[in-house]
Protein 1
Amino acid sequence: TQIKTASGQTLKSLGLTQDSISVNGYAMQCRVTTEDPADDFRPDTGTIDVFRMPAGMGIRLDDGPGFPGAKITPHYDSLLVKITAKARERSEAIKKIVRALKEFRVRGVTTNKSFLLNVLQHDDFINKPVTTKFIEDHPDVLSPIISQDRAQKLLHFLGNVIVNGPEDKGVQQGVDSPHTTVEPPTFSPSNDAKPTLRSIYVNEGPEAFAKAVRDHEGLLVMDTTWRDAHQSLLATRLRTYDILKVAKATNIGLRNAYSLENWGGATFDVCMRFLRECPWDRLEQMREQVPDIPFQMLLRGANAVGYTSYPDNLVHEFCKTAVNHGMDVFRVFDSLNYLENMRLGIDAVGEAGGIIEGTVCFTSNLSSPRYNLEYYVDFVQKLVDCGIHVLAIKDMAGLLTPGDAKKLIGTLRQEFPTLPIHLHTHDTAGTGIATYLAAYEAGADVVDCAIDSMSGTTSQPSLGALMHSVPDNLSLNTGHVHELNSYWEETRKLYAPFESGQKSGSADVYVHEMPGGQYTNLMFQSGQLGLASQWSDVKKAYADANELLGDIVKVTPSSKVCGDLAQFMVANGLSKEDVLEQADTLSFPNSVIEYFQGYLGIPPHGFPEPLRTRITQNKPVFEGRPGAEMDAYDFPAKEQMLKEKWSNAAGHPVRDVDVLSHAMYPAVFEDFMLKTNEFGKVSMLDTPTFLTGMKIGEELAIQLETGKSLIVKLLGVGVPNEDGIVDVNFELNGQSRIAHIKDLSVSSTVKERQRALIDVAGSVGAPMPGVVVETKVKKGDKVNAGDPLVLLSAMKMETVVSAPCSGKVLNVEVTSGDQVNAGDLVVEIEEEYDHQEVA
C-alpha cells in the first residue's frame, strides 16, 4: 500500500475508504526497555543474568539485544523487545499482554516492566478513554512493583560461597561440613490425655503453671539442645533448618518436659550476624511446629538480649512481642546479680503475661565469705518480693558441687516451700549429674539437660544419663529420647567446622570460674589474637582479672569484661600487680572501662577502689541502674526511618519485629538487611550447602515455600576476568543461569571508581550509568547550588549533573569519555555554610 500511494495512487482507488473498513479485533504493543520509571525513565546498564521470553497464541515478539550474558551499554537504544498481543476484544488483548509481561523475566538490569503492568491493569486504562495525560493524571503507575527475585539471589549466594569460601569467618579452615542428609525420627502422636504444662499456662496463667510444677511428682527437665547446648559447643551456630526438621518429633518425644530452651542469649544476634536469619521468624516457625511444650528464653534483665542498657519502654515492648510470637518462660537474670536491672525485666515479663523465672547466678562456693548461704537466701527473698513465679539457680560455670547443691537447695526449699526451684549447670568439670541428683534429693523441681550427643564438657549434663539415674521419676519416653539423640548425633557432624576441639572436661574451672558458654568462644578468640599457645595463661589470667574486677558474678556480659581483661593482660605480659601499679597509663579494653563506669550496673560488693577511679579517671560514672534515666525509645520515628531505608529489602515491608531487632543491634541489623537484600533468604538451604556451597555436578532440591521448589545444579565455575569476575554456571529448573561473582582474592586490572557518600551533600554522584560528555567545572571553581557540573549521555539521553549545594570544587573525578556507574563520585564540593544562620 505504501509503495502504491507513493507512486501516485489514492486510497480510494485502492478501495480503502472509511466505510469499507471494519474493526475485527484489537492489537496492543508494549515496548520493554532498560529504563527506570521510578527515576524519570533513566536508562540502566549492566549484564543480563536472566532472560526468559513469553509465548502463546496471539503474542508476537520483536526482540532486540536480550539474552543471558548480554551487556547493556549506554551507547545504544534501551529497547529490549516489543511485545504485541491481538484478540477479538480490547479487554482480551490487555489480558494476553499482561500475562506475557508477567511471564517475561529479565534480571541484571532495571526495566520498565512494572510501569507497563501498572498502566495495563489500571481501571481507568481498561474502562475509560485514554489520553496523553494519562501518566500525569495517574502518577502512581510509575511506582515500581517489587520483585523478590528469590531464585537469582539464591544462586548469587551459592556462587559467592563457591568462589570466595564460607562467609562466616568462624568456620575452621580445612574442616568440611559433610554433604550428608540426616533424617529425623517419626513418632506416633501421644495418647496421653493429661494436660501439658503449656496448656495449663495458656489456659490458666503463670501462677497455675508454677503450682503445677511444684505439685508434680518426680523431676522435670528443661532441654537446652536448641540454645545453650549449641551455644556452649558449636559457637551458637545451630540453624533453624536443622531444628525444624526434628521439631514435630520433639513435640511428641519431649511432650512432658518442663520446657525447651530455644531463644535469647547469644542466639538473637548470631541469627542475624552469622546465620542470616530473622530471630523472630525462627521463634514463630518453632512455635508452629511445637505447640505442646513451653518455650524458654534467656533474658538479660535490663539488657534484654543485648549487651547494653535499653530504655524501659523498649524492654517492655520486646517482652510483649516475644510472648505474642510464642515465648512462655523467661529466665530473667543479671550478669552482676544487680537487682535493679532484674526488676525491669521481671516487670516487663509480668506485664506481658509471661512466666517469670527469676534467677540468682551462682559463683564461687558456699564457703566464700562473699557468696555464702546467707547471700543467696537474702537475694532469693528479694526476688520473691518482686513477684517471680519460678526460681532459677544459674550455675553458668559448673561450680556448684554436689555437697553445696544439697546445702543450697535444701535451705531454699525450707525457706520457700511453695516456690518451684529450677537448677541450671554446665558439665565442665564432669560433676553435673552428681550435682543434679543431690539437688533433686534436696527438693529441686527442675534441672537443665541436653540431648546426649549435645551434652557434656561446657554444655549441660546428659539427659540420657539423668533418665537412667532416676528411671522412675522422669516422665519422658526413653525410646523417644534415644531416637532424638541419634538425629542430633548425626546432625552435629554437619557443624564440624565450629567444634572447639575440646576433648574432655576440666576441673580447673573451679579455679578460673569461666562460664561454659564462654569457654569455647574465648578459646577461639584467643587463637584469633595469636594467643592459642598461651591458652593456659589466659585461663590463669581470667582468675586474676576476676579479682581485679572485684570477685564478680561472671555471665554475659560481665564474663566478656573478665575475658577481655584476661586476654589484654596475657597479650601485654601483665600480672595482676602490674595492672594495679600501671592502671593510670594502660589503654584498657572499652568493655573494662565501661564496666568500671557502671554501664552494667553495680557488682554485689561494690567496685574495687582506688582501681575504679584510676581507670575511669575523668569519665562519667553511674551510681544506679544505667538505663533509669534514658529517654523513651521513639518507635514511630525509628519505624519510619527503617521503612524509608529498607522497605521490601527482605521481601516484605518493615515489621514491628524488625524495629525491635534494629533497636537491640543496630549495626548487626543493618548488615543483615544488606545481605538479605543482596542474597535473599537463605534459611531454606541445607546446612552443608549453606556453609560450603556446592560441588560441580551436584543437584539440589530447594523448597522456597509450600508448593514452590527449585532444582539447582552446578554446571561449572569459570576463571576470573580482568575485573576479577567469575561466571558460575547453574541449571535452574532445567534452564541455564549464570551468577557473576567477584573473586575477592583477585585484584582487578580495571580501576574501581570511588563512590559518592550518600549523606554528604558535597559528594556528588552520577545519577545514572553513562558516558561523560563534558565537565563544566574544574578544581578550585566556586559554584552555586544548581550550577551544571558534568554532562552525561546514556542511550540517546543527556543529563546535566547539577551542584546540590554551594561551595568550592575540591576535585573533579571524571573527564570527557569516562564511563561511570550510578553512584560513582564525579565531583567533590567543599560545602559553604551560612555562618550567620549556624550561629
Protein 2
Amino acid sequence: GVCWILIPPSKMPGGGGAMMAKKKQQKKAQELEGSLPGVGTGMGGRKVAPAAQEDESMLEDLSRAPKAEKSDSFKLDGSKPQSMLHVKREFKRFLSEFALYSIWLLSFALTILMTRDNTMTFQFANLFRKNIITGNGWDTDLTTVDQFWDFLLEATGAVLANDIFTRAFDDFFAAEPSFLYGNKRVGSLRIRQVRVPPSKCSTFYTSQLLAEGDEQVKKNIQCYPEFDTGAKLEKTFKKEGDFQIIDTEAQPWFKYWESKELNEMPFFSATFASYPGSGFYIDVNEAWWTADGTDLLLEIVPMGDDLVKKPMMNITLSQLKNSNWIDLKTRAVFFDFSFYNPNMNIFLVVRIVVEFLPSGIVSSYSTFRTVDPFRYGFSSSGELIVVALFATFAVLAMYYATREAKLIYRNASKYFSSFWSLVTFTIVVCTLALVGLTGYTIYVTRNIFDNLSASPDQGALQSLGFLLDQEKNFSGIIIVIMVIRVYKFCTVSRSLSTLTRTLGKSAKFLAVLVILFLVASFGFALSSTLILGQDNYNFYSTSWAMFTLLRAGFGDFDYTEWLSHRFLGPFLLLCWLFFANAFLLNIVVAVICEAFVEVTEENKEADAAGHMTLVDALWDLGPVRRLLQMQKKKRDKIVKLEKTLEEVDVDGDGMTDVKELEGWLHETDAIDLLGVKDASELMAKFDLDGGGALDPEEVQKLKDYVREKRNEVDQEMNGALEEQMDKSRAVRRATMSGADSSALNQRMAKVEQTVIGISDQLADLKSMVQALAAGGGVALGG
C-alpha cells in the first residue's frame, strides 16, 4: 500500500506566504469595494451586513472608488457579491461604449441611406438595360460575330439618338442634341478593342490535319490563343494576310493607345479574363441613319493632343466592318457610354464588354453603374447633413483607430487573441480605407468636372464610375461587419450572449468541418466539370462548379442540368446531396446543438450559484434603489424634525405649549412619522407633570424619542435592503425547473458519496498510521 501524508497548505514550502499574500489581497479588495463576504464598516462608522454595505456605497462619491480595468466585454465577477457602486460604474462604461458605437454605426448607416436611392437608380439603369439597348444581338443572344455587328448597329443608333423633347421654346418638333428621354449624354461613345498577337500552331495541326500544301507555307500558319493577362498585346495592327502598312492618320482606329493616354483603368475584369485599358479605339460623337435605314454614319472625334487642329471624321459602320477592324486576333470589344440625369443629379456609366473567345463564340458582359459623384456638397440642408454625418463617421473612425493602436501597443498577443478585438481591428482598417477611398473619389470628381471646358473624356468617366461603385461595395461589406460587432454588447446578459457563446464553443469543430467540406467540394467540382462541363454552362470551370454545388447543397438546383450525362450526372447529384445534406449538414447541426445545450447548462448553473451578469445586477438595482430612496426620504424627514426641535420654543419663554407643538408638526409633517393624531396627543404623551406645556427636560425626552425613530429607520433600511437582495437572488435561483433541480440534486448526491468515500479512506489511513506508530516506525510505501 501507499501511505498518504496530508500536509496543511500553511506548512508546505511557500504555501504560507502564498496564503498570506492572498489574504492581504482580499483585505485590500474589501477595503476598496466593500463587497467581500463578512462584516464591513458602513457610513458613520456603523457595522453593517454585506448587502447593506453594498447598497450604502451607492450614496458615496463615485470618485472615491477605484476604476475598473477595461476588458473586451461587460461582465461582473459572479464569484462574489458586487457593490452597487461597481455595478453602476460598469453600467456607465457599458452605456458610454454602446452609445459611442451606436453613433458611429448610425452615422454611417444614415450616410448610406441619404446618398442611395436604389428605387430611382434602378429605374434609371433599367431604362437603358431593357428599353433602349434591345434587339436580337443583345445579352444572351449575342453569340456570333455577325450578331455582334447587329448589336453594334442597333445599340449605337439607340444611344446616339436625339431626344424627342426639347428646351427650344417648347418646339416639340425640334430634337435636342445629346439628350435621350431627358437624360444628357456625357462624353462620346467609345468603342475599343483588345487584340492578341499570333503564335505558332501545334505540330499536329500543321503536319497531320494540313496534309496537303507546301511545307514552308504550313510552317508560317499562325494561331491566336486565348487572352492572358500576362501575355503581350498586339500594339501594331496587322491584318490577316495583308502585309500593307496601314495609314493611321487616314484610319486612326488602327492606332494603338496606352491606358494612361485614354484615361482608362489599368484592368477591367469581364467573364473570362481581365483586360487592360489600352487598345485600338474610336470615339463617336454623333450618328445618323442612312437614307435606306440600314447603316449608320458615324462622326468620329479626332484623336490625339491637337484635337483643335484635326477636323471631325465621318465613316459608316459598314465601312468600319469591311476594313477588318474585327478579326481573329480580337479578344474583347468595349462599348462605353455615360448619361447624366439632371432631375436626380446622378450619372449612369455603362460598359458592355463583348468577348471574342478562341473557340469562335462571342459572349457579352455588361455593367450599368448609377453613381452620385456630387453626394457631398454644401448647396442644401440635406447635403450639409450628409457631410456632417460622414464627418462624424470619419472622426470616430480615427478615434477607434487611436484607441485600438494603444491597446495593440500595450499587449498585442492578448489583443489579437480576442475575437471581438479582431472584429474591431477589421472594422477600423476597412473604415480608414473607405475614408481614404472617398476622399480620392472626391478629388477625381473635382479634376473631371471643375473648370470643364469640353465634354469629359469617356475613359475618365468609366474610371470614376468604377471607383464609386467599389466605394459602394466596400461600404456594403463594412456595414455588415459593424452590425455583427453589435453582438459584442450582448455579453451583459447570459440570455443575449447565448448565440455568440454557442458559436464560440463550436467554432473550432466547425472550422474543421469547413475544411473537410472545401476539400470534398473541390473533388466533386473537378468531377462535375469533367463530366458535365462540356454541355452545361454551370460547370464550365471548377470555381463555377463549386458555386453550383453549394447552391445544390441548399436545394437550389435544376435536375435537368445534371442530365447532360444521363447516367453519371444523376449519380453525381445523389452522391453530393447525400454528402452535403444527409452527412455534413447534419453534423454541423449536431455540433451547434451540442454547444447550445452546453451553454444552456452553463446559464442554469450560473443562475443556481447566484452568479450575476450586469443585467442581473441592474435588475436587482432597480427595486433596491426604489426602496433605498423611500427609506432615505423618511430618514431625511426625521433629521429635519431633529433640527427644527431646537427652535420649537417660538416665544423663547423656555416652555413649549400646544400651539407651538401644532405649528412644529404642520411645518415638518411629523404627524405620520411620530404616530400621533395631533399636537394634543403628543403633549399628553410627553407632558409628564401635566402642566399643559413641555419644559426643557420634557423637550429633551421628545428629542431622544425622535433620535430613536431615526435609528429605527436606519435599521429598517439595512434590514429591508438585505431582505430585498436576498429575495432577488432567490428569484434567480428559483428559475430553475424541477428537472434542473433534480439534476443538481443528483450531482450533489454524487459529491456527498465522494466525500464519504474520502472520509472512509482517511479513517483507514489514520488506523494504518497508528498501527505503524505502535510498531515503532513509519514505513512509506509497500
Protein 3
Amino acid sequence: PPAGPPPPPPPATRLGACAAWLRLCRPFLGDEKKEQNAQASLDYLKSDLGKAAYPDDLTCVNVAPMPSSAPMDVDSDQEMYDDDGDAELKAALELSTKPTQDFHFVTRCFFLASRAVTLGVAAELHHTVGMDHRPHRAAAQVGWDHDLTRAMLAEVVAREAALASDSVVDDLQAFSACQCRWLLRLCDDDLRRCPEFLLEDACTIPCELNSMKPDTLKRSKPSPDLLKLCARCLGATDTLVKSPHAREKLGKALYDLFLPVTAKDKTYTEKYMYRQPLQENPGNVDLLANASPEIAAKLCPAILWLFGDAEHIGDIYQIADQRLRIAALIKHLWDAPVHRAAFRTIVADVRAFVTFANGLLNETNKLVAGAIERLPEIRNHQVRTGLLDASNDEFRRLRAEYESANDTRREELDSRHSEHEQHLKQDLELCTEILSLVEMLTGDTAVAKAFMGEELRSRLAGMLLSVVRQFTGKRSLDIKISNPDAYGFDPKDILSRVGRIACCFAGEPEFPGALAESGYYDVELLPRCAQTLRRLGALSSAQLDALDKLASAAGVAREALSLDDGLENEAPEEFVDPLTAELMKSPVKLPSGNVVDDSTIRQHLLNELSDPFSRQPLEPADLEPLPDLKKRIEEWLAAKRAERRAARGG
C-alpha cells in the first residue's frame, strides 16, 4: 500500500527544535544594531526556504491569503496551531542545508525561528494554558486523590515544566521583543501582508507565559516596543489589522502586561480556569501611565473601538472578558493626565464617540434584562431545594415536584440552575463595570456634554429609566434571592449608580424632555426611585434634591408632550419624517433630495454611511439643514398646542 504522510513530530521534538532555533538567535537578541540585520521586509518569504516555511495560504494581517494549491483541512484561523504545519517546517529545515539566496544569517534565523516558535512553543503554550482547569474540574467531581485527577495534574505539571524553564522563558521574552521591533520597522503595506501569527505571537506569548508562570512578568524587562506596536496597530482601527480576533489579542496584551494588579480583576475565563490574578511589571505600568501624547492619541480611541469589536470575537464569555478588560483599561487610563486629555479629544469625533457610547448603553440594557430574566429562575430553584421558604402555593408546588422527581430530572434542574448562575454572575459583573464606567465618564464636563448631543440624549434617558423600572417596578418583587452577594447582585449599588448618573444631567434643559419622550417613562418612576434611594441613604441630600427636581421637570415635560399626541396625523406631509412617520424637529436635506429629521439620519449613519433612499455614500457633512422648514414646523406646532390647551381649559 502507498505510504501515507509521516506522523507529526511529538511535542518534545518540536519544543527541542524551537529551543535550538532560539539559541541560534541569542547573539543578536536585544542588540539593536545586530537586529537591524533582520531584513525589514517580506522578501525572504519569496525564497525557496521561505516558501517552504511560510506557505501561501497563511492568514495575513490585513490581506486575503493567496489561494493554495493544496488547501488545508482546517480553518485558516486555526491553521497556525495545526500539527500539519510541522511538515512545512521539516521541509524548510531540509532546505536549510542547500544553497539559498543571499540573505543575511540574522534574517534567516529570525524568519525560521519565528515559524518554529509558532509551530512549537506557541502551540504548546496555548494548549497547556487551556488545560489548566481540567484537574480542578475533575477534583470537584471525584476528589484530588483520585487517579484521574492525579494523572491530569501530572500532565499539566509536566507540560509546564517543559515550557517554563528559566532559559526557555528568557529566550521567548527576548525573541518576542525582537518580533515587536521588527514589526515596527515594517512599512504599512508589508505589515498588512505579514503572516498574522507573527503579530499574534509577539503579544500572546508574553501573556500566556505570565498566565502560566506569573513571576515571569515581574522579572522581565519593560516592553516599550510592544506598547508602540499596540498603539500603531490598534490606533489605525481596522486599516492595518483586519481581524477582530487579532485586535482582541493586542488589547489583551495591554491589559495583561501594562496594568497594575490593583486595576485588574479576574475575568470570567480566569475565574473558570482557577487562575490567580495576573502579576504586574512596574516598568510596563510606568510606560503606559506616562506614555507620550502620540501613543495616547492612538491608544485611547482604539480602546473605545475595541468595545464594539467584542461582538465579533466569539462566544458570550469571550465577549464579556473583552469588555471587562476594556472597562478596566479605560478606568485606569482616565487617571493619567495624558490619557484623559486624549479621551476628551475623542468627543470631537462625534461618530466614533456615539458608536462607543451607544454600545455602553445598549449593553447595559441587555445585561440588566438578562439578569432580571434569570433571577426568578434562580429564586424558584432555591425554593425547590429549600434555600428559600415555600411561602405560597406556587412555591410549595415547585418544592413538591422537585422532591418527587427522579434523579435524572433533578440533575437536569440542577444543571440548568448552574447555567443560570454562571450567566447571572457574568451579567451582573459586567453590568456593574459598565455602569461604573458611564458614571466616571459622565462626571467629566466635556464627556457629559457629548452625552447630551442629539444622538445620545434619548438613548441615555432610556437606559436610566429601563434600569430604574426593572429594580423598582412591580417585577422587582420577583428578584428576591438567597445569598445575593454570591452572585454579585447588589440592587442598591446599581440603583445608586443610576441615580448619580441622572443627577449629572439634572441641570441640562433638554434632558427632562428626553426622559418624558422615552417609552420607558412613567410619571411615578423617578419619584419612586428618589424615594427608594432616600430610604437606603445611598445619595447625598444635594443629589436627592437634584433627582427630585429632575423628576418634577420630566413630569412637566410629559404634560407638554401630551399636547402633541397624534399631531403627526394632522400635520402637512412635508412636516413628517418619511422614515419614522413622526413630526420632524430639525429637518435636513439629503443629497438624494429627500428630507428627514436630523436625529433620524444621524442614527442611521452610525450603522451605515449611506443614503437610506439611494444607497449612495453619505457622510454627516453632506446633510443640509433647512432652517425655514424648521421654523414653519415650530410655528405650526405652537398654534396646534395653543388650540389644544384652550380646549382643555388651560
Protein 4
Amino acid sequence: RVGGRLYRYRARLLASRHSPLGSPLFSSSTRRPQPAAAMLPLTAGRAALRRAGGATSRRVPASPCHRPIAQGPRRAAMMCSGRTSTIMPTGATARRLLAGRCLSTGEGSSQAIETSPETRGNTPQHRQIDEPSSLVPLTEDEFDPAGVMSRVRKASGWNQGRRDAENRNKFGGKWDHGFVRDAVDDYERHLKYVLKHVEASGSHARNEGSERETLKGVLSGIHPDVHKCVSAERLLSPKSLASAARALTRMRLDTPVLSQRIRDIERLIGMIGWTPITEELSYRLLEANCKAGNVRRALALLELRRARGYAPRESQDQLDRAQQTAKSLRQGEKEFIHVLTSIQSAQLPLRRSRNIFQHEADVSESLIDNPTRYLDAVLINMNERGVPLTPILAAKMLNCYASTGRTGRATHFFYRVVRGATLEEGDGAKDDVEGIVDNARLKMRMHSPPPFRKIPSAAKGSSFAHDTTEGMRNEGLPIEAASGSGKTKYDQEIEREYSLSLTAAFAFADSLTHGACGHAPIELDITGWNALIKACCNRGAFHRALKILNETLPQKGIEPDYYSYNAILAGLARVGDITSLKEYLVNMTNKRILINKFTVEAMADGFLNVGDISGASSMVQDIFNQHETLPPYTTHLKIIEFALSNGLIFEAKRHVYFVQQLWKWQPSQHHDARFIRMIETTRRNPKLSKQALQKMFQYFGEELVDDDFF
C-alpha cells in the first residue's frame, strides 16, 4: 500500500507541475527537431561530474518545462525557448515576449498553480493573471497621460526627484513607497484604458505584411481632448515602459506580488502591440523580472540582448558616473548579477518555509533547489558576450546553492510554547478546567534532544553501522549506511546520494577551477569557499564544512574569516552542539578573528536551544566585556522570553539589569566610533525600553516594578 501511494503521488506530482518562473520567448508550435550535432563543450556541472565518473539524477523525472539543456552554442536560448536553433527575436517574437506567451500553451504564462496536499508545503502561491484586478477602471475624465507619466518618471528616479533635505523633512529620511505604488497603479489603469480603446477599434489585430498603421491614427479618438490624444502616445513609448519597470522595483512589494505586477504590465503592453523593445527597455525589464524572481523571463531577456548585440551593462562610463570602483563591480557584470539575484528571489519560498520533512528530490523544480543549469546558461551568455568570469562572480553563483533554506538534517525542534495548564488524570474536577486555562501562563515544553548523528561532536569519526535503517531513512541518509558498511559521518556526507544539490554545488565549483563553458580556469577566493561552507551547513553536512575550514583552506593558503566561522557556528547552534560551539569560539579568539554580533547571536542561540538560559546570558555579558560586541536586540528579547516561559523570573531580571547597564554606559577616550555607535543603537531601541520590558513581563504574567530598575 505504501508503494502504491508513493507511485500515485509521483504521478499526480508530474501531472500537475507547472512553471511559475516566467515564460520563454518562443511558442511550442515553432519547435524544431533537434539536429544531429558534433560533441560540443559540456556544461559546468556535467563536465565535473563526468570527470568524477558519474552524473546526478533526481528521483522525480523532469517535466517538459524543466528538461536539461541540450549541448550546443546557444544553451541559454534553448533552455528559455525549447528550441535547438538560434533565431533573432525581433518583430512579432519580441511582442510575444511582452505579451507573456507560454511555451507549452501559447497563453499567458502566469497560470494558477494547482497544489496537491503533498506539494502544498513547497509550492509558491500565485493568482491567475486573468483574475479581476483590484484597480478601479479609469474613466474618461480621469484620463491624463501627461500627468501619469510625470509621476512615473518621478517615481523611477532616485529619491523621487527630491532633494535630500526636503525628503528628510517630509518623510523622515525614508522612501515614499506609497507615492511609487500610486504612480504605477495609475500607469496600469491608463494602459487598460488604452487597451480597451484599441480592442474596440480593432487596430491591435494586424499582420506583418499589411500596411502599418501609425500610432497617432490609432489613438486619435481615445479622448475628446486633442492634447491628451497626442500625450497618449507617450504611454506606449519604450522610455515610458522602462521608467515604469524601474519604478516597479521600488514599490517594496513581496516577491510573488511584484512578479505578478510586472507580468500584468508586460501583458498589457504586449496586447496593445505598439511598443518596440529597445536597449534601455530590455535592460529595465531584465532588472524588474530579476528582482521579482522570474528566472526564465530574465534568461529570455538576457538572450534577447545577446542576439541583438547589446553591450552588457554597466559600461565603464556608467560605472565612473555612479562612482563604482573596479574592485566592487567590473564592466559588463551588473546584468548578470541581476540574473543571479532572480535565482535567489525564486528560492525565497525555500528560505521562508521549507518543508524539512520532505526529501529534496521531491521538492518542486520550480523552486530551483538545484540551480546548476541556470548558472550554465549565465556562463554561456557571459562567454558569448565577452564578459570574463571573476572570483567575485563565481562566489555569487555558488551562493545560489546556499540560499535554498535548511533541510531536516540541519534543523531540530528543541521546544514548543504552550498556553494553558495541563491536567493529569485525577487532578481536580473538569469544571475547574476553564478557570485554570484562563489564568494559565505561557510555558515552554522542551522536546527530546536531537539524535547523535546530527551533532558533529557526538558523531566525530564514529561509525553509524549500529544505527537503525528507519532512523537513517527519516534523516534522508543513504540506506546503505545502516546496512553494516561502517561508514563515518563524513563518508556519508561526501556521497552523491546524501544531497544531490550539495553534490552539484561542489561539482560546479570544481568545473569553474578547470574552465567552464569557455571561460578560463579560476581559483576560488574565501568568498566562494564560504558559500560552499554555508551550503554544507544548510544541508547538515557539518563534517564536510569543517573539513573545508580546517584542511582545504590551509592547504590552499587561504585564511578563513569571521564569515566562515559564523556560518559554522550558526549551523552548530541549530543542532545544539555546545561542545563544538565553545571549541570554535576559542579558535576564533586564538586566531584573532573578528567576533561580531552574529557570532554572539549564534552562541546565545546554541545555549538557549539546549535550555541553558543562564549560560546564554552569561555568554552575552562575557563577550561584551572581553570583545566589546553586542548581539542584535532580538537576542536580548529571546533570553528574557526563554527565562520567563521557563519560570526563571530572577534569571530574566538578571538580564534586564545587564540591559540597564547599557543605558547607563558612558563612552571614554579609549572607545572607538564603532563601539560607541553599537551601544547607542542598542540603548535607543524602543523594544528594549522600560515600557517595552514591563509589557513583556506582563504578557508572561509577571511584574517588573520600578524597584527593579536603577
